[in-house]
Amino acid sequence: MRLGLVIDLDVCVGCHACAIACKEWNASGTIGPLSDYQPYGAEPSGVWFNRIRHYEMDEYPNNKTINFPMSCMHCEDADCVTVCPTGASYKRAEDGIVLIDQDKCMGCNYCSWACPYGARELDRSSGTMKKCTLCIDRIYDQALPVEERQPACVLTCPAHARMFGDFDDPDSAVSRTVRERGGFPLMPELNYNPTNTYLPPRRKPVIPVDTRPRGGLKESIKQFANKLVRR
Amino acid sequence: MHPAFSVIFFTVASGAGFGLFSLLFIADTFKLGGGFSDQQLVIGGLVALGLIAFGLLSSTFHLANPKNAWRAFSRFRTSWLSREGVFAVVFMPLALIYLVCIWFDAPLWLRETFGFLSAVLAWITVFSTGMIYACLKTIRQWNTPLVPANYLALGYASGSLLLLLGAVVAGLDPAPFIAMAALIVSIAAVLKAIYYFWIRSTGLTPTINTATGFTRAKVKLLDTGHTHGTFLTQEFGFQIARRSAGLLKIVVFGLGFVLPGLMLVWIFNEQGGQTAAAVAALAGIVGAAIERWLFFAEARHVVNLYHGAQRC
Q1: pTM for the whole thing?
Q2: What is the ipTM of this complex?
Q3: Are A57 and B66 a contacting pair at CB < 8 A?
Q4: Smallest CA–CA separation between B221 and chain A, in Å?
Q5: Is the pLDDT of residue B271 over 70?
């Protein structure tokens, strides 16, 4: 199995609900707490596993705002695991999830240097590195109904921009969607082989905008009247 | 990258210590300048081991959870950081046996064997220190074979200047030590110049386009999505102005290579001069420390592409 996420950049509305749900679940989960520094102060900061950035693609009139959620990509060739000197970082053979053993981590930050996606953040209160667990304490929980055995971010997304599944199975919903929509990985040139895949925005017809006013006597009188009224 | 002072101190001090120890072995084997006495060799060796031990100790200060530091020896097979720790720890007993051999006048083959083994391990350890940085694909300025080469050259340059100071204090003929220091310092200067030249060009690196996957249009960041700084901006956001970096490079060359070079000429002409030797050693080490600071300050991690950088 190779579990991971598909994120639909065409659908994501940038509401940050996935980040909030992630924080809520994981702050009280097996890897918690996720410390906040000055949450109500002048310089609020803290540990998050999921961060949403906002980009603008191309230029007016072809521009588009893209909301860009990012969490751990659970890479196939994860350098964060190989560089870890203590063995705290590991990748599970059975489902490909990259995890950090909080009892072994010495907080040297080296794994965060090796990660190109900024998925790892040091928690100052525990002195250990923390990262997305793909809600491992949720997806295998037999006490939950089957449809709820998914990461918190996927369940909460109001736009259904996130999917969770097995990328090793060519007939899984995630694999099929990635094939049909032309999903792509981030920074493939670094050869980390990230599992999480992004779906591009769909092509939309350009809506013609008529910027010049129509001519004619009626239009000229209208404009003249408007000018008078404005004065 | 954020320059952490404990790591700068560690790499400079342990580099100088490993350099000094291996060159001390060479000076002992070839009896350079008439040869150090056994007592002087042991003192020199202990100074080198002290530098290494202090360096290793200070490296634990940048750990957020140092109580797990002992686990760092466990991933020898994949991690250069782990390898460096293991090699440094294997070096210590070998180096101590070498010094014991000198002190108790052991047979020459035993003394030379352990001296050679510890010199080789010193080389491997400094190489591993460089590889910690050079193996990261995420930082273009580090992902080059010039990085371990620079670490070795600067470590040995600092070591050779310290050894020259020792030779001058011990009253040996300084000429062979001057020649050795001149050669190693020039090699270090040339390698550093190549490095600075090399990182000037942008090369093939990830851009904001490959980082977001939108490779067919211009992409710009609108909002990072956080109110204040995060761990990522604190650790990787550090930037140095191109002008200040250029000025610091001049300081690195002036203090680290030119001033020690002038001092070498001075010692050679005056035949002695402990002050000059001390100035050379100090300038070399301070130059190496500034070089190390700049090495961190100039490194641009690709995560900055998600914080507005167009390329790294």
Answers
A1: 0.92
A2: 0.92
A3: no
A4: 4
A5: no
